[in-house]
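Summary for the lay section of the report: proteins are chains of building blocks that fold into shapes. Here we show the chain for Acyltransferase family protein and then a coded description of the shape we predicted for it.
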Amino acid sequence: MSDRDPYFDNAKFLAIVLVVCGHMIEDLRDDPIAHALYFYVYVFHMPLFITLSGYLSRNFTFSSGKARKLIATLAVPYVLFELAYSLPRLLLYGKLEISLLDPYYLTWFLMSLFLWRLSTPVWQQLRWPLVVAVGLSLLSGTSALPDELSMNRTLGLLPFYVLGLMLRPEHVEALRRPYMKVVGAVTLAAGLVAALLLHDGIATEWIRWRHANAAIGVDDLTGSMARLGMLAAGVVLVAAFMAVTPSRRTWFSGLGAATMYAYLLHGFVVKAAERFELGVPVSIALGVVVATLLCTPPVRAAFHWAVEPRLSWAFTALRRPVR
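The coded shape description reads as follows.
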């Protein structure tokens, strides 16, 4: 842990808090304030996670060690949690619907991140990778893509991953300058005001990246402009959020190394909380507590087998290069 930059762990922890709180208030969207907060958070919370994932994946290669880590940290947890989230449907509704190619609930992120990481070497060879990624994102809205491989989200949110890949340490350092904290705070506040004013006039599906333009009820030109606007808003708010993220070590820096635990496990708490009318303030407070607790060492120790399984037994011994 002493070799980790606390800035990125701080950003990851704060991002997972937003993710959990966003899911906690999802069923309360009949309340205008809840809907505005939901809209605001969803514009940039997963783009933030995806951008950070891209930045931290810059050194990904097809080496044996990296491939094994990809399987252990994404592929196997995806299968386990796809099965785990199907069990409540079986117990409550008598339905057992499992499709490993069609992610259920929040497991889509594991599927998409797996595909994005596999594509990393390709983006690093292109002259204008971000332009290509944005083009693919806009084109994905013009077709009714299948749910398999979470194609709509995988292609729609692709520019944020590629943006992370293209970022350099000097870009991040520019965001960490003291005056940028003021700029970032003002930008985030302006974004919240905009969400409060505009959330009723914008279809919620735009911030979910799940459907084609036609399914949302617009033509492709209008849909492409809307998607471009969502991409731009996401980038601005991601940059603003990274600007206000503390650079120093904080009480939650260590928790930021375990955000995948909170991401994969919080869905069970959300599903249980949906049965109670908690209200917006209580739901948000509960989201903060849940996100924090699920990143703690006891939870990591209890669920390491599912989130970060040790699979050395499943792989052949790595061959050392011949000198």
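Put simply, here is one thing we learned. Residues 6-311 form one domain.
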